[in-house]
Amino acid sequence: MVVVKTIKEVRETVKQWKKEGLSVGFVPTMGYLHEGHQSLIRAAGENDKVVVSIFLNPMQFGPTEDLASYPRDLERDKEKCLESGADLIFAPDASEMYGDNFQSFVDMNLLTQELCGLTRPCHFRGVCTVVTKLFNIVKPDRAYFGKKDAQQLAVIKRMVADLNMDIEIIGCPIIREKDGLAKSSRNTYLSAEERQAALVLSKAVKKAEELIAAGVRDSAEIISQMSAVVDAEPLAKTDYIKVVSLDTMQQISKIEDSALVALAVYIGKTRLIDNYFYEGE
Fold first, then answer.
1. Which are the contacts of 279, defined by CB distance < 8 A and separation ≥ 6?
2. Residue 172's beta-bridge partner residues?
3. Which residues are catalytic?
4. In whole angstroms, how large is the CA radius of gyration of the chain?
5. Which of 124, 149, 211, 262 would you label with 116, given CA atoms 20 to 30 Å apart?
């Protein structure tokens, strides 16, 4: 496994692979890798070569968000990439990615208006811009994203379709702890008490899954019962609980063929997300 920090090195390596007729899978990350990221790297192993980017993208953090405190440990990340079968790590710094006087951005309407886009208004412009740059740098055949970030996955799929990018986007299942908590780099922020309290997210998701399996299709009823689960935990504060269309990420009053049930909850000062994809019978 090779670790590089410059765009030139990535391009030269991938160009040689492509000359040899090898396929390339790509997993973009912000670092501090966990089992969820490793599952994406292993999924990308269906390709001949796997590239993992480790870049804490400042553009997708708001001024009051946790860029400064976000966990970082490149040596640990290297070990996890090696364990999972990565061939190349691209770990640039911000100056390599954005340079001086950077002025070009990729943005999107509609899909970014609800859920995380509502409370983090600059977030998806940062995501779309950096992912477009990474796709242009790495030029992968396939790229792998976790379904925990469901809105991000929808946004990237739409961006790739709208901009005619020749890349297959693959969504991979949420990886959870044994007690149900979705794996997240931000879980490291939680105290022992908060870690226990954070289980309300997966409990609320499970409640939605049970209601839908029982035939409940009214969004308000699903949201009400999920809210009751979250509100019962004193350390939890709801950012949002919503039922949206998988295609538009806009709220729907009734589930028809498919839907995304998503929530964001503050546990203390830590904002966590979780969701349930309902894709019909």
1. 246, 258
2. 146
3. 37
4. 19
5. 211
Tell me the per-residue pLDDT of 27-78, one tens digit each, with 9 for 90 and over.
999 999 999 999 999 999 999 999 999 999 999 999 889 999 999 999 999 9
Sequence-separated (6 or more) residues with CB below 8 Å from residue 119 = 239, 240, 264
**Strand, coil or helix: 267:** strand
Are 146 and 274 in contact by the 8 Å Cβ rule? The answer is no
Contact between 244 and 251 under an 8 Å Cβ cutoff? The reply is: yes
Contact 264, 230 (CB under 8 A): no
Q: Which domains does the chain carry?
A: 2-172 (3.40.50.620), 185-273 (3.30.1300.10)
List of residues 6+ apart from 89 with CB closer than 8 A: 1, 2, 3, 4, 51, 52, 53, 54, 77, 78, 81
DSSP character at residue 223: H
- Contact in structure between 28 and 54 (CB atoms under 8 Å): no
User: Which band of pLDDT confidence, cut at 50, 70 and 90, is reported for residue 280?
Assistant: confident
